[in-house]
Amino acid sequence: MKKKLPYSLFHFKSIQLTMAVAFSCLIMFTTLFISFTTYRLSTNAAEKSSREHTAQLIEQVNTNIETYVNYMENISQMVLFNYDIREYLAKGTQDNENLEQRISYQLSSVLNTRKDISSILIFDNDGNIIPTKQIKLNKFVDPTQQSWYKKAIEASGKVVISSSHVQNVIQDEYKWVVSLSRELSSEDAKQLGVLLVDLNYSVINDLCNKIKLGKKGYIFILDQDGNIVYHPQQQLIYSSLKTEMIDQVMSSNTNNFTTSEGKNSRMYTINQSKNTGWKIVGVTYVDELVPNKREIQTYIFMWGIGLTLIAVILSIILSLRISRPIKRLETSMKEIEKGNFDIQVNIESSNEIGQLSKRFNRMTTVIKELMFQNITEQELKRKSELKALQAQINPHFLYNTLDSIIWMAEGKKSEEVVQMVAALARLFRISISKGQEMISIANEIEHIKSYLTIQKIRYKDKLDFEIDVDKQILGYKVFKIILQPLVENSIYHGIKNNAGVGIVRITGRIVDERILLQVIDNGIGMSKESIRHMFEKTEKSVSGSGIGVSNVNQRIRLYFGDSYGITFESELGQGTTANIWLPILE
Q1: Fewer beta carbons below 10 Å: N end or C end of the chain?
Q2: At what angle do helices 441-459 and 395-410 cross, to 10 degrees?
Q3: What are the Cα distances from residue 218, in Å, to 164, 231, 254?
Q4: Quick one: pLDDT at residue 581?
């Protein structure tokens, strides 16, 4: 018994065994999958925790702002129900100096104890401030035309909180504030004036800056109309050097959303105040949600790569042994695609790959034999069709023509006899054409002219013809005798049954880089059904003298493709136009 070489240890008789060994490759993909999944799960968990923590921080800011605003509302409530202020507004400034001093003292006491309040102002219905002697209004500003004044009147006693703005009602003071205003009215609901409490902008700034959202994160506040109440970069916002997703924040139905801006992608966390209607928005940069994301990624993937390398080293030799014969088979298949059927695959094993290679070699041999057989059959068929085309002048047509010549000779019509005999001779000469398959358009036109001359003499005054072919195309090549079946169709199907003189017009020119030959008649026309039957594959043409229009059309399409062939245009009672589209062949 012949001993096997050690090298043959790698030649397994079963591809299944080979694949079993190759399962080590699956370890690589499994490890990578587990590594990727572990990384995604860990980072997602960290991101979720970070999102929840951010939401809690924003909620804390919202709670602090609501608490502060509620306290300011209580202060305004105290002023609202102050008896001295109501009496002053009801009686006016006349003889109320002591009352004015008491009011001034009370307001000053509040301002001295609350440094976060910029000013507390009370206006009567005419926009006059009380007490009038200590504070001077900006004479260029009408308080009653300010938005905070109008909104307070419209709110009918409810507190109105403005967005951040520069307060300009007091002369020489232009402070950045958030205004709290409300209408003052008497016990009988009569309007007395408006209370204005200006809160220092720094208060809102301090409440928001206490919370840190990473190194780049920040908090901003929007009112119910989408106006910015607070932003740490307010000046950049107003100068359009920085933009925020305000429209998306206002229309969002969720508590957060994330923008897609590459490395600058941001997460917007939204919490809306029930008291003020403000939206507290926290902006966190996505790359800061998980600060140690890079370390997690590196650790997990280094662990995965280590296991993968071990698996690859163990399976690389076997994977190469499996892939080589498959690659050879693939290369051979590509050669088959290129038309090289002489290719054979070298068989080096008896396993499934070896058996597949044997079947492949057998398949290429069978395909090659079938193709040779098909080519032979097509060649025989083509030659048969060529012979049929060359036999357009069949005995029936020849008999009719000779009969007409005899009749005219007996009638001593020598000139017509000469014309018909000469035309018949030219017809035979071009039909034979030394066995050539292709002839010039000039010869094809000469052939159909001879055919029409014979038919015109036979039909006398019932038939006439015109030929208008561009000289530019006369030298190009076409299949011979392609016009005659169409002319036969015009004579026997259109003109023969027409009461008047039938005219057949032959034209030729170049259209859209193709040769267009046309056979045009003024006959009775054809229905769509008749045209459809014209293209049916039949053995005889409409006159019984040839293989017909369908065969000519099929022959053209077989050799040159579907962009070429025969089309018909016809209307009943208006005549028919047959179009022959051909390539330009030198």
Answers
A1: N
A2: 50
A3: 17, 8, 19
A4: 95
Residue type at 547 in one-letter notation: I
Residue pointed to by tokens 């790698």: 10
Run of H or E including 283? strand 279-285
Which residue, among 427, 460, 424, has the nearest Cα to 445 in the 3D structure?
A: 427
Q: If residue 230 lies in a helix (H) or strand (E), which one and from where to where?
A: strand 228-230
Compute how many other C-beta atoms are within 10 angstroms of the C-beta atom of residue 159: 21
Looking at every residue in the chain, the average pLDDT score rounds to 79
Rounded to whole angstroms, how far apart are CA atoms 518 and 534? 16
User: pLDDT per residue over 91-120, tens digit each?
Assistant: 765 566 777 778 777 777 787 778 888 888
Query: Residue 244: what are its φ and ψ, rounded to 5°?
Result: -125, 160
Residue 7 has pLDDT above 60, yes or no: no
User: Residue 531: is its pLDDT beyond 80?
Assistant: yes
* Per-residue confidence (pLDDT) for residue 96, from 0 to 100: 67
User: What region, left, alpha or beta, does residue 403 occupy, with left being phi > 0 and alpha being psi -120 to 50 degrees?
Assistant: alpha
Structure tokens that stand for 42 in this block: 């860990």
Structure tokens at 464: 């006439």
- Name the token pair of 196: 């204005």
Annotate 273-298 with b (16+ C-beta within 10 A) or e (fewer).
beebebbbbbbbbbbbbbeebeeeee
**DSSP per-residue string spanning 308-356:** HHHHHHHHHHHHHHHHHHHHHHHHHHHHHHTT-TT--PPP--SSHHHHH
Which helix (H) or strand (E) is 301 found in, with range?
Answer: helix 293-337
90 against 392, higher pLDDT? 90
Task: List the structure tokens of 441.
Answer: 């358009």
The label of the residue with tokens 């229905």 reads 527
Q: pTM here?
A: 0.45
**Distances in Å between the alpha carbon of 7 and those of 12, 348, 434?**
11, 12, 68
The DSSP code for 495 is I
Q: Which of 533, 586, 581 is nearest to 559 (CA)?
A: 581
Say how far apart CA 553 and CA 310 lie, in whole Å: 68
CB atoms within 10 A of CB 93: 15
**What does DSSP say about strands 438-440 and 228-230: parallel, antiparallel, or unpaired?**
unpaired
Mutual orientation of helices 395-410 and 414-432 as an angle, nearest 10°? 160
Structure tokens of 476?
């190009």
**pLDDT for residue 393 is more than 60:** no
Is 460 in a helix, a strand, or coil?
helix
How far is Cα 555 from Cα 574, in angstroms, rounded to an integer? 29
Buried b / exposed e over 189-213, threshold 16 CB at 10 Å, is eeebbbbbbbbbbebbbebbeebeb
- Identify the H or E element spanning 148: helix 147-155
What CATH number does the domain located at 392-583 have?
A: 3.30.565.10
Q: How many angstroms separate the CA atoms of 231 and 312, rounded?
A: 56
545 falls in which pLDDT band (50, 70, 90)?
very low
Please give the structure tokens belonging to residue 71. Answer: 């306290």
pLDDT attached to residue 22: 63
| Residue 541 reports pLDDT greater than 60 | no
DSSP code at position 263: G
